[in-house]
Design brief:
Elements lengths: L3 E4 L21 H17 L3 E4 L16 E4 L2 E4 L11 H8 L4 E4 L11 E3 L4 E5 L5 H11 L3 E5 L10 E5 L2 E4 L13 E4 L11 E3 L2 E5 L3 H9 L3 E5 L2 H4 L10 E2 L1
Parallel strand pairs: 1-2, 4-5, 7-8, 10-11, 13-14
Antiparallel strand pairs: 1-15, 3-4, 6-7, 9-10, 12-13
């Protein structure tokens, strides 16, 4: 059972986050801070002890701590982000994690971001996307000593927006990946076409945290026997971020 989550609230430059969202210009930092506080309180209510980092006012995207590292067992691999503007975000995360895990870093030419890595019970799945490449996946597999399967889709930023493991051999799945042989052994909750990006959800035991916008997907998850808690994440969505991005579960 997971015991801890590393989180970091948005910093003063959050409005300059990398984003292609059409409403990015409407981002409200004060509201983002309130939403982050609610997110953290929800994790606490679910039994996680929070390790709360100070806001990083140098890196606009630093609240999306998931991208900085992949943790498996007693090891962690510090990622190498595709966007150079984000590559300093991992420093404090590495410092904190070194108290709990053996650590190594991805090196050039590898790129890897946590938003592309899905944890299954006995393996990892890595999206080969606009942000993570095959070399990054190979380095991760070698250091973490766990089988890594890859799905290549260079049209997306992170695969966790399209695919998430909920536990109990069940996945949330964008229809575009139906029939992929890597996924055939899992029970599949196929996302509605109008909510095809709703897979980015945090599963803690039998509770699934989801965006309040994804009502149809939430009903499908409930029907599969999970409890669903929906949160308003509007300001993080304006930065192309979502629920899993905001924590590192260790």
């Amino acid at each position: 059972m997971s015991k801890r989550a590393i989180v970091r609230p948005p910093g003063s430059k959050f409005k300059s986050c990398l984003s292609s969202h059409p409403l990015h210009h409407t981002l409200n930092l004060d509201l983002a801070l309130e939403q982050h506080k609610t997110y953290c309180q929800t994790l606490t209510n679910l039994g996680l002890d929070l390790i709360e980092l100070e806001p990083d006012n140098q890196y606009p995207d630093a609240c999306f701590v998931e991208d900085t590292v992949v943790v498996h067992g007693n090891k962690a691999i510090i990622t190498r982000m595709a966007k150079e503007s984000r590559r300093g975000e991992s420093m404090k995360v590495e410092e904190v994690l070194s108290e709990f895990k053996q650590i190594k870093s991805v090196v050039e030419p590898g790129t890897l971001e946590g938003g592309d890595v899905i944890h299954f019970p006995y393996s990892l799945l890595c999206g080969i996307t606009q942000r993570s490449n095959h070399e990054g996946a190979v380095q991760m597999e070698e250091w973490l000593e766990v089988p890594v399967h890859c799905i290549e889709d260079l049209n997306i930023m992170h695969i966790k927006s399209h695919l998430t493991y909920l536990g109990r051999n069940t996945i949330l799945l964008n229809p575009r990946y139906i029939g992929n042989p890597i996924l055939n052994s899992y029970n599949q909750i196929v996302l509605p076409n109008e909510e095809s990006h709703s897979a980015n959800a945090v599963a803690i035991d039998d509770v699934v945290l989801m965006s309040i916008r994804h009502k149809k997907t939430a009903e499908l998850v409930k029907a599969a026997g999970f409890e669903v808690v929906q949160l308003d994440m509007s300001e993080f969505e304006k930065c192309d971020g979502a629920l899993t991005c905001l924590s590192i579960i260790i």
